[in-house]
Amino acid sequence: MSCIRFNTPAQLAQMRELAPSMLTAEEAARLHPAPPVTESKIRRLRLLAESGNPKIRESVASSYNTPTDLFAKLAKDSDEGVRACVARNEATPCDLLRELASDDSASVRGWVAVNFYVPADVMDELAEDESEVVRSLVAWKASLAREADSLELANA
């Protein structure tokens, strides 16, 4: 059995007419609100952070609901992947991003470099990193910022 569909021009036109318009992120969030963060969710995150499986600890490190003390613990995890998830999480506190900017792993430092909320002084430090990959990520992120600035000026 084939999964290929052949629609007539009339069917395609009707599908286009009935297609919903694209929603903004705010409209989608309003229509589909996230469930509230409960104490049981926080307890579950704490329990999962103790797992022997680094992939499960990575899921905790990737959660926006992870408490600050768990981020601090996971930022010192022996597994590079867990630390990388902390580094790329936009909910990670800036002081932990500062610490992770000097991590032994270039991968972790690279994730710090692309985190939107990394402080400017940390970006300056990473611009001089020993790893060419980390330096190139810093340069790439800086080029994105310059492009965004020039677009704002053009639209002003």
Write a concise synopsis of the structure shown.
α4 (54-61) packs parallel to α6 and α8 (106-114) runs parallel beside α10 (132-155). It contains 10 helices and no strands. The protein has helices spanning 9-18, 25-31, 39-48, 54-61, 68-74, 80-88, 94-100, 106-114, 120-126, 132-155.
Order of helices and strands: HHHHHHHHHH
Report Rg. 21 Å
* DSSP strand count: 0
Query: Which structural class do you get from the secondary structure elements?
Result: mainly alpha
Structure report:
The N and C termini lie far apart (55 Å). Helix 4 (54-61) runs parallel beside helix 6, helix 6 packs parallel to helix 8 and helix 8 (106-114) packs parallel to helix 10. Helix content is 63%, strand content 0%. The longest helix is centred in the last third of the chain and has 24 residues, at 132-155. The protein is built from 10 helices and no strands. The protein has one domain (37-155): Leucine-rich Repeat Variant. With 156 residues, the protein is mostly helical.
List its salient traits.
single chain, 156 residues, mainly alpha, Leucine-rich Repeat Variant, 10 helices
